[in-house]
Amino acid sequence: MKRALFAVLTVLIGVLVVAGTAVAVHSRGTEPPSITATPAGKATTDQGELNHATLELSIFPNPSSSQPGPDIPASETTIVAASQGWPFYSPSTSLQLPAHSLVTMTIHQYDTGGQIYNPWLAKVTGTVGNKATYAGKELSEIDPNNVAHTFTIHQFPQSTQPYFFVNVPVPAQSDKAPNEANGYPKPIDVTFSFITGAAGEYVWNCEFPCGNGYVEFGGPMSQRGFMSGTVTVV
Ligand SMILES: [Cu+2]
Q1: Distance between Cα 136 and ligand 1 center (Å)
Q2: What Å distances lie between residue 207 and 14, 17, 96, 147, 181, CA to CA?
Q3: What pLDDT does residue 75 have?
Q4: How far is the CA of 60 from the centre of ligand 1 (A)?
Q5: pLDDT value, residue 156
Q6: What is d(CA 213, CA 215) in angstroms, rounded to the nearest whole number?
Q7: Domain that holds residue 133
Q8: How far is the CA of 55 from the centre of ligand 1 (A)?
Q9: By percentage, how much of the chain surpasses pLDDT 90?
């Protein structure tokens, strides 16, 4: 058991190093304008009564006329993204969350996917109950062979900020899912809540290799505004 855990941790650290390197070696680029979680009154949690806030994101498989892509200045990157059909989180990857609060996020997922390299990342971690609701069904993990993206918040390795780690895998659409009028299939809605700590600057990224280049961690995976961004806890 201990050996298996070490193996899983070793692979996870490897994935984070590769993803981190891809982000670091790439030009950081412009971050899209930040979006702020909406206050939603109070919530009772196992840490007592806390402020509650909500945030909605969508994941689109490619820019289109109905979804033009990340709100970053038009550049070579955005032209390549459109021509290669890069997936992206919308409306922004720059997220601002209230400190010491319950945050409920909903992700509307429109993209296909496949097998994730590290099945540990197909488990829900760091949310309330280590669970998320997938199209109305509460689960603690999804099929590692049917992942589209992940939403993974973590801190900088050298950081002295409070520990903050959230991983929510997002399942893939069927290749046969019919498109609706907006050119995308009916979304799979994923909802989860987590509790923020003290103020700090964090980052998040997708841990499913949905890009191109080295082990599919290039392209949208290494360009901010698509599959990674910032989490500012204020
Ligand atoms: Cu992704």
Answers
A1: 22
A2: 11, 11, 21, 10, 30
A3: 86
A4: 10
A5: 79
A6: 6
A7: 2-233
A8: 19
A9: 74
**Backbone angles phi and psi of 78, in degrees to 5:** -70, -30
Q: What is the mean pLDDT of residues 196-204?
A: 94
Q: What is the distance in A from the centroid of ligand 1 to the CA of 47?
A: 32
Q: How far is the CA of 115 from the centre of ligand 1 (A)?
A: 12
Residue count (the chain): 234
CA–centroid distance, 44 to ligand 1, in Å, is: 32
- Dist. CA 205 → ligand 1 center (Å): 8
Q: Does residue 23 have a pLDDT over 70?
A: no
Residue 22: phi and psi, rounded to 5, are: -60, -45
Please write the tens of the pLDDT for every residue from 114-169. 999 999 999 999 999 999 999 999 999 999 999 999 999 998 777 788 889 999 99
Number of folded domains in the chain? Answer: 1
DSSP 137-202: EEESB--TTSEEEEEEEE--TT--SPP--EEEEEEPPPTTPPB-TTSSBPPEEEEEEEE--SSEEE
Which residues lie across from 233 on neighbouring strands? 97, 200
CA distance 16 to 160: 18
Instruction: Tell me the β-bridge partners of 206.
Output: none
Two tokens, residue 18: 């590769």
- Give me ligand 1 centre to Cα 93, in Å: 12
Considering the chain, what is the average pLDDT of its residues? Answer: 91
Q: Report CA(207)–ligand 1 centroid distance (Å).
A: 6
